[in-house]
Amino acid sequence: MGEKLADLQYQPGFGNHFSSEAIPGALPRDQNSPLVCPLGLYAEQISGTSFTSPRKLNQRSWLYRIKPSVTHEPFKPRVPAHTRLVSEFDASNSRTNPTQLRWRPEDVPDSPTDFVDGLYTVCGAGSSFLRHGFAIHMYTANKGMKDSAFCNADGDFLFVPQAGRVWIETECGRLLVSPGEIAVIPQGFRFSIDLPDGKSRGYVAEIYGAHFQLPDLGPIGANGLAAPRDFLAPTAWFEEGLRPDYTIVQKFGGELFTAKQDFSPFNVVAWHGNYVPYKYDLHKFCPYNTVLVDHGDPSVNTVLTAPTDKPGVALLDFVIFPPRWLVAEHTFRPPYYHRNCMSEFMGLIYGAYEAKADGFLPGGASLHSCMTPHGPDTTTYEATIARVNAMAPYKLTGTMAFMFESALIPRVCHWALESPFLDHDYYQCWIGLKSHFSRIALDETNVESTDK
After folding, report:
1. Catalytic sites, residue numbers
2. CB contact set of 200 (below 8 Å; sequence gap of 6+)
3. Which pLDDT does position 443 carry in this prediction?
4. Taking 50 as the threshold, does the pLDDT of residue 307 lie above it?
5. Domain-embedded: residue 450
6. What is the pLDDT of residues 426-439, one digit of tens each?
7. Which domain holds residue 129?
8. Residue 302 burial (10 A CB sphere; 0-12, 13-18, 19+)
9. How many domains is the chain built from?
10. What torsion do the CA atoms of 97, 319, 47, 168 make, to the nearest 10 degrees?
11. Is 153 in contact with 252 (CB distance < 8 Å)?
12. Which residues are annotated as part of the binding site for homogentisate?
């Protein structure tokens, strides 16, 4: 692993048209698909959008590889089947539930478990078949994928490691992703995951029929939030030689299929294009916050968004709650009590979340669905209002929480609702909220009497 890290290089930028060669001269000049490619390579295009998508949205890359990816045996249903992955949400695999839900961190298993076997769906909405929707998964694993690669034909994966680094080999190169960083593997790319630290746990958001993009900044201006130059794409790297019985695991319609081939899929010597895996360090995010009164809406902390056709409405937003200064005057500084037309799935990478004093742990999760009330727990509320005369500016440190927010109403998988890690007492964190109502300081001329 040390030698691999020493060779690791990235290309900065978001949405750029990149070019990368592991061997100088491997990229064709002046055209994409010459009669004979340099070094005897095969030209292969991977399209992330339809051919006729508007140019500003069109995504594709050209890969120049030792053997084309079509060189494999027929796909067969994976044995054993993976029964906890969903890409079409209906009553057969999930239920609706408006209750506030919270899960404690799931333990990493003791038995050998790689990323594929350790991945499971928690909730989601829509359908990969209809190219509209999302799924939220979690994973626990303790070993790398050996002689196998995974390909998600259903949608894009957004990885949020919580414990343990993730080493991702892709057809475009390699990414090392640590807790506090994220990675996006677009639909269709083959990748393999190794675990340098042994055990690993984290979250994965999946979107169907869309790709992530940077949010518009509006009145913020030209700078702020996630800077394009801080996103990192891999550089070309390849494997050659025979790899007997190498397995491609393909997720297709939420089911897993396998195909055998005798070479590594990471045999791309050069590539160019704008459809590419990438990573981002959340610590480089430039947050914006209120500087006078009131608590700002969480949308101001959006890192990436997958929009719908309706302006301002997201299929899925990825929002973070990073370290930052809290300075608002005469203001309840934690997040406000809320009912939202969007649905909010939250996770915690490390530290504590400012609205929950207890129970919301790193590696855990919560789900507050459409119009389900939520907000600070009793302890947080009482401690905050007790500081009414001591509201000096202070810096929130040592924390990194995040939210996947969607306009779609999620269905929750049966196994997630039956999980031993489901916190059945979550609602108790609000039961202690008491009435502080008093007429003493109220101008009663502005209150309509109920006495008739």
Report:
1. 295
2. 108, 139, 140, 141, 142, 161, 163, 164, 165, 166
3. 54
4. yes
5. no
6. 999 999 999 999 88
7. 2-8+72-265+276-282
8. buried
9. 2
10. -100
11. yes
12. 353, 374
